[in-house]
Structures are given as structure tokens and as C-alpha cells.
Amino acid sequence: MSDVVKKKAVDRNRAIDPAVLEVLSRELPMDTAYDRYVAQQPQCKFGDTGVCCRICIQGPCRITAKAPKGICGATAYTIVARNLVRSAVGGASAHSDHSKHILLTLKALLDGHAPDYKIESPEKLKALAERFEIPAEGRTDLEILADVVQLGMDDYMRMTGGKVKWVEKTVTPGRFAKFNDCDIMPTSVFETIASAMAQTHMGMDADPVNLIFKSLEAGLADYVGMHIGTDLSDVLFGIPVPVYTEANMGVIDPAKVNIAVHGHNPLLSEMIVQAARELEGEAKAAGSAGIQLMGICCTGNEVLMRQGVPPVTNFASQELPIMTGAIDAMVVDVQCIMPGLQAVAECYHTRIVTTSKNAKIPGSHYVDYNEEKALDQAKEVIRIAIDAYKERGDAECIIPAIKNKVVAGFSLEAMYSLFGAINADAPIKVVTEALASGELRGVVLFAGCNNLKGIHDENHITMAKELAKNNVLLLATGCAAGSYAKLGMLSPEAVDLYAGDGLKAFINRLNDANADKLQGKLPLIFHMGSCVDNTRATNLATAIANDLGVDIPKIPFAASAPEAMSEKAISIGLWNVAMGLPVHVGVVPPVTGSELVNGIALQVAHDVYGGYFIWETDGKKGADKLLEALDYRSWKLKVHAQTAERFETTASAAW
């Protein structure tokens, strides 16, 4: 019996974050995600490989050697491909739903129904107008905004007879042509979601290649929703610039009213920040030292990069800050919110406050968020937290004294500002010249979630250290960025600890050129925002390709989701492959039940789009495979450039 308990305890402690491990080491009143992962073992292998079909209620049908077809005759390759499409649609719908709310809030602002919001960045609005060839001269910001909002509405709702502008105007000419040639260019976000769901209904498409192409279209619809969300959030809340703060559970202050904002949508969390400032006096009148805000997941990333709010943890460990006894309220909006939060909160004095009609939790406090009453509702939430603080009284708070320095807020505009201090006329050449000289070996974006199939945060950290040592410029979004924030990888000190000579020289050159503009030095990894902000990094890849005069499949740029978990991660991975990038995934997705589908993802996709997936659960091996991919692209880019120069022609478009 003791051996079983000991084994379970070892399996349960699936993290490398010392704050997480400290909380898990205590006797806790409720189970956590770490316990529930152990309780789910062994997990279903049919679902794990994608060969379980539940599209109709004749099933579920599970493909085996004895039963190689479902009741309708669907084979493994059809079932796996259909499941992939539906996962991609799930991810696209989540991101587009998030961005739809941003779009509708701007529409409400135009109609006079969102009095607490305003255009925070006229500069970004004018940049969008220029991108989409919307007249700006002699027009008010609201007039320009009306045209931008209408364009966004069209890209969401167009039924036929057009292509989404948020792809056409943001990718390389080669990518735009490829998407059209392969017939994966979305007509609109909603049309793609509807047609993809219809295409995967029982008795519909059984062709795995056709289905995989549809999954790539769904991925591009995801890209559209994400890009609209990022662009319009910048207009509404401001373009992120570098901010300096701290991260991990040590940011919790037992003397203050502690409020965690969690989820993905900044509409309410931005108001929470404003309301907290206005109600600081009420919090002190209740006996506290003030209000301490902190972030979890991508809502945390949103208010980190614009307001400097410190991250307290990321997805997998979202329940654990409550178990310190010091969190008075956790305010959630949408996506990646564990239902288990409420059960944990009931063991303490913590209030869980839900704010979205499509993301409720039984037993929580519900505030029906509405843009017409945004600030008043944010103040209502703050007062719920203050009342909870009063109930906390002298209850024991056990807070891990662990936190690390964080530098975040690197929008693409902020990156260009850094590069522009070296080359004002052509900022992107600071990167392309470093790549051409070999100072930088490549660029890698870390994205994705946490997944307890591996050790929480381990692959993120292992891969980042290995790639930094090998002079790769590193970008991060989402819960990947959360891992790096918690564990000190978004700090200037990490440059000295982990960067190779080339990367260190590159970052220090930026430090020297921007010394008069920055509060401190630059970090090892550049935090580019929430998971919806992955398009910022892809825009950088597009700029690199355009500057080099090639398409994206030829540049040494890659993406990695070391701990992919959600349908959103699948849709992001798909559009990155379509963009032409090698995409490493540290958790094998449910496609291995079909050799055909798996082979298309790992190899055939490269032949058609230039991008492809790399499944590798070992972080060190994953980093090695990315380095190999970067080196191959750099070598081929150099050979093609030399050949073009020798024969006095343009470089080959092939990859």
C-alpha cells in the first residue's frame, strides 16, 4: 500500500516550478489538476490516437485490427481527419469568439453605447487604415474606425464572393497565392466554421486529403480572428511597450486585497485595473494595505503587457494560488478556466467571479458583463473581493516566497522601435543581417499551453535554454510566456546565464542602442503577448521574408508548442504550417491512428506548403530538431542566393 501511495505522490508532482511544488507538498483540502491527471490513468488509447468516432450516435466506433471500419464504413484515415477538422474548428471558434467581442465593443463605442472605452491608440488605427487602403486624411478617428470595424465585420460574416482581407493584406505574396491555389483561403470566419462542421457531419466528406485541406482553411480562419483581435485590442487599449515587473506566487501580498484576473479577453480586465486604482481607498478602509492585482493565463498576459500587472501562474497550476489562502477573488472571463476552481475556492474564502454568458461555473458569483456598464461592473467585482478580504480575517496565508523579474510588452511595433535605434530606415534589416551573418541561427516562437502529460513547464524551459545557447532569437506568447515569466527567463539576467555568444551580442547591441529609452535591459526571451497575439510573431516572419525577397518557407524561422493542450493550439499549429513554418509540438496530438494523416502532417505538408509538424515529447530532442530545421533553411537560402547572384537572376521560389 505504501508503495502505491509513494508512486502516486511522485507522479502527482508533475512540475518544475518551485512555487507549484511548494504548494503541492502541503496537505491540501481538495484535489488539483495534478491529482486528477493521476486519477485518469490510463487514458483511452482510442481517443489518444484519434480513432474514436462520436460524430453520430450509432457509435462510438473505435477502429481496431478486428474492426477496421466504423458502422458507416469510415476508415481510420477518415475518422482521424474528421476529428482533426473539428478540433481546428473548435480552436478557430474560440479565438474568433474572443475577437468578436472586441469587434462588437468597438461597434458599441461608435454607436455611443460603450462610454467607458475609447480609442487608446490612434496611431494603430491609422496604421490599419494604411494597410487596408482606407482613406484617413481629413477624417476623424471615429470615421476611420467605422470603416475598419466594417471590414472586420465583413471578414467575419461574408457568405460568398470574396476573400478575407486580414489574410490578403498581412501575408507574403507567395503565401496568398498558395492559399488561393490550394483553395484554402477562407471567405469569412463564420462561413469556414459552418462549412467545416457540415463537411464533417455523418455521411459527408470521407476524403482525408480534402479534410486536411479544410483543417488548414479552419486554421486560416483562426488566424483571421486572432489577427483582428490583436489589431483591434491595440486600437482600444494601446500598443504594448516594454514593461518591468515580477512573476510567480511571491507577488501575492497577504496584507492586501488579492485579485487574480484569469482567462483571455481584456475587455473586463482592463476595466478591473482602472477600478482597482479608483477603489484603493475602499480597500484600505476595509483594513487592507491596498489592492494587489495579478494575472493568470492570457488575460494575465494582456494586462501584463499593457498595465504591468504581474503574472502569478499559468494554466496547469491555476488552482494553486487559491490554496495559499490569500486570494480574495479570481475573476474569470473565457477559455482555459478549470471548472475545479469553484470547488477549491469553497475550501477557502475566495470568490470565483464569472463574467461571460458562455463561461459560467455552478456556484460562482456571476456578473453579467456589458460594455455599457463596464467600469461600474468592474467596481462591483472589486467590492466582492473587498468583502471576501474582510472574511479572511486572521486566516493563515502560506505563500511561496518565489518570484522573478519580468520584462514583457514586446508588440511588433515595440520590436521595430528597438531595431530602429540601430537602423531607422529599415529596422527589419537588424534581424535579417544578423541571420545572414550567422550571429543569429534563427528565430523560434514558443506558444501553446501546459499539459500534464509531461512535466509542467519542463519542456518550455529545456527547449528555451538549449535554443538560446545555440544563438536562436526567442519569442513567446500565451502560457509558454507564462512559464518563462515565472521561472526567470524573461529577465535580463537570463541573457548572461543562457544566451550563446551570438544571441548575447545581438541583445546587448539592442541594449546599447536603446539605453536612453528603456527602464532597464532587455530579456532573454521577448514576450509578445497572449495566445491570440501569435500573429505578431508571424508578422515578423513575413517582414523577414519580404526583406529577403523570398517566401516564408525559405527563412530560418520556426514555432514550438512544447506543452500543447487545447483545440486552440491545434488551430494555431495548422495555420503556422500553412504559413510555411516547421512547427514542433511536444505532446503528440490524436492523429497517429492513421499513418496517412500522420504522414501528411509530418512530411507531405512540407511538399505543398513548406511548413510541417514535428512531434517530439523530449525537450532536448525537440530543440535539436528545430536547430536542424533552422540550419537546413539557412543553408538552402544561402545556396539559392548565391545561385541567383551567379546567374544574375532572382532567387528560386521553391523550397
What does this structure look like?
The chain is an alpha/beta fold. The chain folds into four domains: 2-62, no CATH class; 76-237, Substrate Binding Domain Of Dnak, Chain:A, Domain 2 (Up-down Bundle), CATH 1.20.1270.30; 249-392, 3-Layer(aba) Sandwich (Rossmann fold), CATH 3.40.50; 404-646, Rossmann fold (3-Layer(aba) Sandwich). 51% of the residues lie in helices and 11% in strands. The protein contains 26 helices and 16 strands. It has a six-stranded parallel beta sheet with strand order 6-5-4-7-8-9. Strand 7, helix 15 (340-345) and strand 8 (351-354) form a beta-alpha-beta unit. Helix 5 (76-110) runs antiparallel to helix 7 (141-157) and helix 19 (458-469) packs parallel to helix 26 (619-646). It is globular. The relative contact order is 0.12.
Overall body shape: globular
The end-to-end distance, rounded to whole angstroms, is 58 Å
Q: Could you tell me the radius of gyration in angstroms?
A: 24 Å
Q: What strand line-up does the widest sheet have?
A: 6-5-4-7-8-9
Average pLDDT, to the nearest integer? Answer: 95
What key attributes describe this structure?
6-stranded parallel β-sheet; Rossmann fold; about 650 residues; Substrate Binding Domain Of Dnak, Chain:A, Domain 2; globular; alpha/beta; single chain; 16 strands
Task: Write the SSE topology.
Layout: H1 2-12, H2 18-24, H3 33-39, H4 45-49, E1 52-53, E2 61-62, H5 76-110, H6 122-131, H7 141-157, H8 165-168, H9 173-181, H10 189-199, H11 208-237, E3 243-247, E4 257-263, H12 266-278, H13 280-285, E5 291-296, H14 297-307, E6 311-313, E7 329-332, H15 340-345, E8 351-354, E9 365-366, H16 374-392, E10 404-408, H17 412-420, H18 429-437, E11 442-446, H19 458-469, E12 472-477, H20 478-486, H21 492-498, H22 501-513, E13 525-529, H23 534-548, E14 557-561, H24 567-579, E15 582-585, H25 595-609, E16 612-615, H26 619-646
Parallel strand pairs: 4-5, 4-7, 5-6, 7-8, 8-9, 11-12, 11-14, 12-13, 14-15, 15-16
Antiparallel strand pairs: 1-2, 3-10
Helix pairs in contact: 5-7, 5-10, 5-11, 5-24, 6-7, 6-11, 10-11, 11-24, 12-14, 12-16, 19-26
